[in-house]
Amino acid sequence: MFETLRDGIGQISGLLGLDRTVPGAFWKYTSLAADMAYNLTELRLGWQNVGRLEESNVRYAEAVRTLGERMRSLVERHRELRRRIEEGEAVEFGG
Description:
Blueprint: H1 2-15, H2 22-87
Helix pairs in contact: 1-2
C-alpha cells in the first residue's frame, strides 16, 4: 500500500511539475534512495540465503557420503554372513 501511495504522489508531482521544486525534488530523490536501500537489503538477504543453501548442500553431501559408506559396510557384512550360512559355518548375529 505504501508503495502505491508513494508512486501516486510521485506521478502527481511529475505531472504538475512539482518535482522541479525543492520539496518535489526532495520527495523524488528520497523515494529513489528508499527504493535503492530496499533493493540492496533484499539483495543482501538473498545472498545470505544462497550462502546458507550452499552450506546446507555441503552438509547434505557429507551425510549422503557417510550413509553410502555405512550401506557399503552393511552390504559387505550381509555378503559375509550369507557366505558363512551357505558354507554351514557358525554365525554370530550380534555384530
